[in-house]
Amino acid sequence: MVNPDPAARRALPSVDRLLGSSAVVALIARFGRALTTDTIRELLQAQREKLSQNAGAFDFDEARFVAACENELTQQTQPSLRPVFNLSGTVLHTNLGRAQMPQSVADAVMTAMTRPVNLEFDLGGGARGERDTHVEKWITKLAGGDGAVVVNNNAAAVYLALNSLGAKKEVIVSRGELIEIGGAFRIPDIMKRAGVKLVEVGTTNRTHLKDFSDAITPRTAAIMKVHTSNYVVQGFTASAPEVELAALAHEHGIPYIVDLGSGMLVNLEDYGLPHEPTPREALANGADLVTFSGDKLLGGPQAGLLVGKKDLIARIRKNPMKRALRVDKMTLAALDALLRLYTNPDKLREEVTTIRLLTRTRADIRVQAERVLPHVQAALADKAVATIIDTGSQIGSGSLPVDSLPSAGIAIQSVGKSKSSFADKLSRAFRSLPVPVIGHIKDGAFVLDLRCLDHEDEFVAQLPQLHLK
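Structure (tokenized):
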């Protein structure tokens, strides 16, 4: 260790003196005294440690120190949850918050956040009410069924259904439907936690009605079908028809449960998209209870929806775990506003953000790419070359896993040799912009898929701040 010059150590001001300076007083007004004081102490300590490593003359620059303090305070107080540009090519990106919600939905949430609302109050009778009633009428109107329950996600919906209807009993599921989704959520694990014994039947690729029939015992509580929304088994396959599974369950006096995973309330084929099973279809095929998500294809807030027969819904609602898994007023406000949009299917393309993004044409996206390209190239200067390419977007969040949406984007490649490492640097540089930009790397190029590029002016305006080291 080098002994620092005592004079240099004395050149460092005290915390109290700095706190009295006009520049720091301004920081206190912005960031608060406690946080500003702590930051000054930390920076002074860092300076002392530097002096202990380097002997010699030292001249304290107060203006530079205060600027460093301001920068540190700005970094500390920046929100952790920040807006980003999702140019990854995945529309419903789990890590980026899944569905973007329409302004009308956001407005409904703002009202619920800032005003008292009749969350659990019956305005007609003047007594305590049930929070699910705010959306139950819309869910049953749009999805079918006699009743509905809302919980905080579809995993919770599956858990609550199984725990309410099958605890300490057996539930039969096809071996080919024992799915795992993101975060290591597995159907067998959730069944175990719900207190249900899994009875798996058939094989990975082929399960027949007889497999289910042979597995039914006095301890069987339900038959469950799980929609394999995040993978597809192709080739030599077979599965029992839903209508026949429902009939078999009803013959034995047990419920038939269908977990749709993502789920949708309209026929996506009407919008030029691949078909996704709907709760109404499942109920029409004989399902007694259907579970699905609110924040995936539906385009709403994170929620798990259960819809079906009134007696089953009543049992689920009485489960003590319902309170632990229930949603708050903001989620209900968002879901209510979103479901009302679905009552007018003709306007979904323009009013529901998820539908609008999924139905954008490649031609429309290429036009946007042509507008954006010159600004991207100007930001890159002569360090890289940007070109417009055709690409394919993924729907995401386990929805329609083998289907790709024709899209367009901008591919950026190095003019040098180390294309792969340069693509990594580009990715970091775009993530470091004031509003981080999330793209993806493919074949040595950094690709920006523009399908989800809203706020184009904001995106372009920040490109001059792109720094490539």
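The mean pLDDT is 92. Residues 6-77 form one domain.
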